[in-house]
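S.,

As promised, the N-(iminomethyl)-L-glutamic acid run. Input:
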Amino acid sequence: MLIKNISLLAGLNPGGILRRRGSDMARLECMADAWLRIAPDGTVHSYGPMDSLPVAAESEECVDACGGMVLPAFCDSHSHIVYAGSRHGEFVDKIHGLSYEQIAANGGGILNSADRLHETSEDELFAQSLERAREVMLKGTGCLEIKSGYGLTLPDELKMLRVIARIAETLPLTVRATFLGAHAVGRAYAGRQGEYVDHIIADMLPAVAAEGLAEFVDVFCDRGFFTTDETERIMEAAARYGMRPKIHANELDFSGGVQIGVKHGALSVDHLERIGDEEISLLAGSDTVATMLPGASFFLGMPYGPARKAVDAGVTVALASDYNPGSSPSGDMRMVWALGCIKMKLTPEEALNAVTINGAAAMGMSHSHGSIAPGRKANLIVTRPLQSLAQIPYQYTTPWIKSIIIAGKAI
Ligand code: NIG
Ligand code: FE
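Predicted complex:
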């Protein structure tokens, strides 16, 4: 495919960098008046200025961007899109004033989703989840991390992870799987949290690893969920199977999750609504990506993570959707980009880097995803004609996206 008349080709990566850290997040490498060629294997072949537009081969599809921009597709590094049914009842409870923790304490929340998932067949779970994966792909996500964690029993966790694998086989988008058995204590282990953690380590992790169903391990390390000691035990066990941690940390309290995540070389620590100077300076001095989830803050009315402060301190910040039925029922990464600007005071360029290259880094995928360069995956967003990139997060509901290209093909 040859795309011509691109007013701005943004998110280029001539230096082959794998992340943008701190002040470097303000940099967005661009070429004005450009063309871009996609190789038959679905990677970027080459690009250049319009005055050197190559002649299209006979077999080549030629696309006129008509003065629109081309950006890297979004890399959403934190989602829980495999779930059964819906939790709109809890949404109404929240309107009536119940908090996320009160809903969880009343048997709602994650355990409610685990009950629904248990009753749902694998095929039905696949059908429901595939629809959401398609939805986010059509909104511009080209690389997506999906977590288990609504199973909470060995068979149901495996069911979720198999569904994630089927989504990866079915759609052209790139999927990474994370085992989140420690999302809540399964009902059968109520009041026996330590034994549930033992069960994760002795039975679940080996089974997940034996089937090769997850690249990463996650733990909900927060007040009322799992302790730092339990989190460390799970991370140490997972490391024996080569599963790197991506930790839910500091959503509800200063949980210590950032400290142990960094200590264990976590690829990312996620949420971070409640972090201070100590956590920020630790993250600035490490390669762990700080992934913030403004959609959850928006939906639950929580504070937003201090993204501005973290970027100014030199942290690698990613933004992700957290698409899940309880705290963020949306996987719209354009909305996440806009919230990054509107609520977290990142510039449009910083926030775009946070939802592309840094999101890819939080999945260990930035060598192939999240930026535009020869050899990298041709996952691209083509926009309508725009005066400035800032218009996309500014007019945040205007349908600026004209088409999405995933693995080199328009979808
Ligand atoms: O990332 N915080 C923990 N887990 C999810 C919410 C899960 C749910 O409520 O179903 C989150 O926000
Ligand atoms: Fe989450």
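The CA atoms of residues 139 and 332 lie 6 Å apart. The chain has a mean pLDDT of 97.

- D.
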